[in-house]
Amino acid sequence: MNAPSAVFLNSQWETLQAAFGSRLQRDVPLAPYTAARIGGPADAFLTADSVDDLAETAKKLWKIRTPFFILGSGSNILVSDAGVRGVVVLNWAKGTRLDDTADPPKIWAGSGASFGQLARKVSAKGLGGLEWATGVPGSVGGAVFGNAGAHGGDVAHNLRMAEILHQDGRREEWPVEKMEYAYRTSALKRKSMNAVILAATFELTRSTTEQTRTLIDAFSAHRHQTQPPGASMGSMFKNPPNDYAGRLIEAAGLKGTRIGSAEISPVHANFFVSSGTTRAADVLELIKVAQKTVSEKFGIDLELEIELIGEWN
């Protein structure tokens, strides 16, 4: 991530304060806001409490030409030890609206809502379609952006519409087809567009609480058997075509490999786990070891599923 220096941000501080007043915070540690509990500080930090607040915040930042990163649940990212230059916007746009009278039923959610909690909420009402997502740790916005998936399901099969804010201030409703989904990616992710996901609507199916609970219990049992507990970023690498990243890393003899306090999980090799003292630099070195070793042994280049956020050497 090419980012402006702290000097640049200092020169903009008065402009930021004029725009955001007491909402604006400085030098906020980001580790507590990430799933892996890793990362340095944000030069400036704002919280958006609703979809409209998120939209207005983004528009103001674009207007004063200040770079920003929107932080949801903090999963699927690795924040550098040096932190993030510019502004980090914590997305707490968590409102939801369920329409179970529609045919088919649907639920609207702000992009800061927990995707897993959303799935559990509708499943508890006997509405199906999102059972696969009950263990997904990310936010709705992150799930829509990256086409999150698990247990054979993914966002591409459930999304009906995403509400997108463009840099020119337009709020546009994108049907699922416009997202151009592929495995763990979307048009927004591939094209690095200056746009913000504000909300999303998901299509559901009619079911029963017994049926949804049976599916959720099965998915949960599988997850506990195959994924490590504790702090992690989620799956580190995308699965290559017709193979699995975890299988390749394990076959390369790297399960349990450690650098500092970062470790390739002995339970599942596509999960890197950490203690509270782990440095992002150690995780990055472990990533490079896995990529280099798998490439040398099998001729396969592992592609990151997580995103590297912040200032890296």
What this model shows, in words?
This protein has 313 residues and is α+β, with helices and mostly antiparallel strands. It folds into three domains: 6-91, 2-Layer Sandwich (Uridine Diphospho-n-acetylenolpyruvylglucosamine Reductase, domain 2); 96-225, 2-Layer Sandwich (Uridine Diphospho-n-acetylenolpyruvylglucosamine Reductase, domain 3); 228-309, Alpha-Beta Complex (Uridine Diphospho-n-acetylenolpyruvylglucosamine Reductase, domain 1). Helix content is 30%, strand content 25%. It has eight helices and 18 strands. It has helices spanning 6-20, 51-63, 115-124, 140-146, 187-191, 209-226, 245-251, 280-298, and strands at 25-29, 41-48, 68-71, 77-79, 84-91, 96-99, 106-110, 127-128, 149-150, 153-154, 159-166, 171-175, 195-203, 205-206, 258-259, 262-264, 272-274, 307-309. A five-stranded antiparallel β-sheet has the order 6-7-13-11-12. Strand 16 and strand 17 form a beta hairpin. The longest helix is centred in the last third of the chain and has 19 residues, at 280-298. The chain is globular.
In short:
This protein is α+β, with helices and mostly antiparallel strands and 313 residues long. It has eight helices and 18 strands.
* SSE topology string: HEEHEEEEEHEHEEEEHEEHHEEEHE
CATH architecture of the largest domain: 2-Layer Sandwich
State the helical fraction.
Answer: 25-40%
SS content category: alpha+beta
Low-confidence stretches: 1-5
CATH topology of the largest domain: Uridine Diphospho-n-acetylenolpyruvylglucosamine Reductase, domain 3
Strand content: 15-25%
Averaged pLDDT = 93
Strand order of the largest sheet: 6-7-13-11-12
How does the overall form come out from the CA principal axes? Answer: globular
Distance between the termini: 10 Å
CATH class of the largest domain: Alpha Beta
Gyration radius from CA atoms, angstroms: 20 Å
Count of domain modules = 3
Number of helices: 8
- Major sheet attributes: 5 strands, antiparallel
- Tell me how many strands there are: 18
